[in-house]
C-alpha cells in the first residue's frame, strides 16, 4: 500500500502578516480522498524526529537555536517568518514523515509526504520558509543505518536546492540533481553534482527534453539504490514566483518521466511536494494531485 505522510500541523497558519499557501496541505489529501485515489488508510501521521537524527545533518548550534527559538532577527528574516514552537514542531513532524516514508518506499516502491521538500535549509541555516532539510536528513539517516549506499536526490522545484547541495558537497554517496530557474531565488546558488539552470519563460517541450537527457545522466552517474524526488509545482506558467511557462500537462509529464524511471529500475522513491504559488489554489492542488494519481497508476 502506498503511504502518505500528513499531519494537521502541516496546514498550521503562519504568524499574522506572513502569507504562504498553507491551505494546499489540507486540500491535497481532501481532494485525493474525495475522488477515491486514496483511502484514509493510505495516510499516516508522523511523530517528531529525534535530535540524534537531526544532528546527522544540521549543525548543533543552529539546531539548538532553532529548538530554543533563539535565532537572531536576521536569521529569522532569512527564513521568511518569525519562529514559534508550533512551526518548529511542524518541521519536526514533516522530517519524520519523510524518514518514515523511506521505509514505506522500500516496501511498496514509493511513498509521499504531503509537505516537505525544504531544500533551502543548509547545514547551519534556514532560508526560504525552510527550517530543516527533510530529504537531506532522511538521506543521511539511510546512510547512517546502512539502508542505502548510493542516493540520488532529484530536485525539480523551480528554485535551486541550495541547502541540499551544500549539505552533500563532500558526500560522494549522495548525488544532487537540480533543474531550476537560473535567475530565480536563491540568488546565491550552491553547486550540485548536476545543475541545469533554466531560462525564464521556458516552455513544455524544451523543459521535458532537458529533463529526459539530464535524468538519464543523473541515474548513470549516481547508480543509486534509493531516490528522493522533490516535485514542486512552481514550474507552472500560472505560478507567481516561478518565471517558467510550463502547462499542467507538462508538469504531469515531468513526474511521469521520474516515476517511470524509478519503477523501471526497481528503485524505491520518496516524494516530497515542494513549492507551488499559483494565484488560484485549484491549480496548485490539481498539479500536486496529478503526482499522486500517476504514482497510483505506475506503482499499484
Description:
There is one protein chain. The chain has helices at residues 24-35, 51-54, 60-67, 73-79, 85-108, 134-144, 162-167, 204-222, 248-264, 281-299; strands at residues 3-5, 43-44, 110-113, 151-155, 174-181, 194-198, 226-230, 269-272. It has 300 residues and is α/β, with parallel strands linked by helices. It has one domain (3-299): Histone deacetylase domain (Arginase, Chain A). An 8-stranded parallel β-sheet has the order 2-1-3-8-7-4-5-6, sandwiched between helices. Strand 4, helix 7 and strand 5 form a beta-alpha-beta unit. Helix 9 (248-264) packs parallel to helix 10 (281-299). The protein is globular and about 45 Å long. The N and C termini lie close together (8 Å). The model has no long low-confidence stretch (mean pLDDT 95).
What's this model, at a glance?
The chain is of the alpha/beta class.
Shape: globular
**CATH fold label:** Arginase, Chain A
What does the largest sheet look like? 8 strands, parallel
Distance between the termini: 8 Å
The CATH H-level superfamily is Histone deacetylase domain
The secondary-structure class comes to alpha/beta
User: How many E strands?
Assistant: 8
What CATH architecture would you give? 3-Layer(aba) Sandwich
GO molecular function: histone deacetylase activity; hydrolase activity
Protein name: Histone deacetylase
Organism: Pedobacter frigidisoli
InterPro entries: HDAC_classIV, HDACs, His_deacetylse_dom, His_deacetylse_dom_sf, Ureohydrolase_dom_sf
Characteristic terms for this protein:
alpha/beta; 12% strand; 42% helix; 300 residues; globular; Arginase, Chain A
